[in-house]
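Subject: Sanity check before I submit

Could someone independently write out the structure tokens for this chain? I want to compare against mine line by line before I put it in a report. The sequence has 794 residues.
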Amino acid sequence: MSEYIEIRGARIHNLKNIDVRIPRGKLTVITGVSGSGKSSLAFDTLYEEGKRRYLMLSGSQFMVDVEPVFDQITGLSPTVAVEQRITRQSNPRSTVGTRTKISNMLTMLFAAYGKRDPEHDDGLPLTMDMFQRNSPKGMCVKCLGNGHVHIINESLLFSDSNTPIKDLLIDGILYRGKSKQKLDEFCYYYGLSVGQPLHTLSGEQLMALKYGDNGKTKFHGIIPLLLNGSKRGELSGRQNYLLQEAYFMKQICPKCNGTGLGEQAMYTTIADRTITDLEKMYIHDLNGFLRLEKDAFAASPLIHEILLKLDCMVDVGLHHLSLSRPVPTLSGGEIQRLFLATFVIAEMDSIIFIFDEPTIGLHEVEKTKLIGIIQNLVKRGNTVIAVEHDENFMRAADYIVDIGPDAGIYGGQRIFQGTFESFVSCKTSRTAPYLTSAKQLTVKSNNKPVDITKMLTIEHARLHNLRNVAVSIPLGLMVGIAGVSGSGKSSLIAGTLVPKLKEFLGGKHAADEDEMNGRPPSRSDACLSGASLIKRCLVVDQKPIGRSRTSCPATFTGIYDRIRSMYASTEQAVDLGYAPGLFSVNSEGGCRECKGDGIIQYHVGFGNYIDLHCDSCGGTGFVEEAMQIVIEGKNIRQVLEMSVSEAQVFFGDKQKQSYDKIIHHTLQTLERVGLGYITLGQKTPTISGGESQRIKLAKELSKQGGKDCLYVMDEPTTGLSFTDTERLIKLMLELTDAGNTVLVTEHDPAVLSYCDYIIEMGPGGGTEGGSVIAEGTPAELKQNNKSIIGRYLK
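---
Independent answer below. Compare away.
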């Protein structure tokens, strides 16, 4: 095998036919400004080719149609890639414990060493499946292992007494299919009309409509229909899903108390702890508990293997998680480190590992451990390639590849390849100057003063590991929330402050699509004061920017409606009677074959899928009629394929038909937050959490400015280069200059150094955290011996 992975003529996306050499058996960092082409090289070229070769070995029939995006790649061995967006593809029931197999190992431990409660001992020997929620022997019989049951919200279902009988439920689902005939028979029997409003029914008629009439007619009642409709075939799967989403509420299962387990598991213990107790512990605490009890397991090799896995998870910075934590709720950085721990434990070798910013979400003190683990992975004979911006990670790398010089169409070139020592003197790199004294991120010369009359105060915060926290946030400033992973930052801000503030604002001024849906509710005993000083709260998080499969930056920011109307108003479109809907893949403009996706997915075996262009629309997603309408020589698909930078020019020329002031202004704002490289039609699954967050920020900034707004941001510099980080910091400063407050949870010392005020949580994670250990200006934290982040501030 060659000493290098040789890539020749890489040309996918914005890559400009580049040649790159990456040493095997080394740690290589691919860096460059945001959107320069780093991921295109690492994931869309290297990883995809590795996957393609694997599928060829499996005899896949679809591979012959894939168009090459490079001339040649040599030295490629089996490739494993972990991207941030993998969290969105996870099984919703997958947990940290199931992903690492530790939960399965605990079931073996309990089956062998569990102590049963005599009152619930059925006399049968303990087996592994008695402790598994997806096993008939182990699951709760009431909730079937889910931990919750669905109950119908009758007050919502019958909230409008003026609703006609036939219009009950979403879009009148009740009055169609098999249910229509039965409802007609019901109304005839009771002398009713299907168009009759509910308030005209007698008490007896309404009860019969709700619960059935004991067989007098074939209509079973709306409530039974909802509960059993899909089982009886009266509703399609999609109809049943829509109804459950609209009218059902989740409730903790009263039989298993939310554990999902049956009685045998609930009453079997090790050292007075059930398997659920262990799964809910922080990894750090579980590790300590099992070490104290390991002598009771008769030197079992099983306990040794469990402790080895837990040690590795602690070392990669996952000590603050629990085995019961659902994988889809993990951040991009956490999911990568979870995979990394799995790889390390498996002792794999001769593998090419590709990571996407593995240091995301880590405190400075945690990065050192992570770098050591990755270097150990390399020592075993593996090759590690990481797309990274972190300075410490780059310094630890054996080799650097810099892609640039800028983003989008202005990037895609190989600027440098070689050692870090040589890289720092590269004069054409946008990144290298920040690694020396030649150029440094801006640091404030003075901080805005704290006005003690304008404070947002939270008291008695006890959510999760918070220890009765009381803290005041100065308003009108840029305030940083710092602390190691699991120290309580999210519990304090996302779990306590934001819900309390939203409750005070009554939901009228709180952000809707930008809020942290699904976050844990705040504890009722937490108190908030100073909320009257805030007019609006905007949470700019890293959740996907849209729920639809066709969501994209253009639709989320609202400019796509204007673009569609622009195309529908052309002379040719007006003559043909085309409406704006023709230029939407979600409406009549979408290809019938691929449903507007432009691709059709095929299963190629071994759990793998491949996407191929739809032959019907040629991969555009649009019907032919929509593609024939052009503005300044561009059809609707070509506009969606433009980068933000390109579209700025297209919509910004006042002398052309394509000019639109509002569209141009929105695109300018996207450019200002460092997103000039993304395309208008880029699909949501390909947009990282950091990019989603900045799109949301741009949408807000493009509106009319205001004051007294609280902007809550969660690691906004995720995925940003030094240059783009500096631009984002300046934008946040503009917000505070306008009279707003920016509350930013961050690990980046450069961003924290720019804050006017810092609140640091800690000192550790999990049960070792949950307290405010330091607060004040960056200068004050640098002098505070209790501060951990202080020693890293600029």
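---
OP: Matches mine. For the report I'm noting this point. The radius of gyration is 29 Å.
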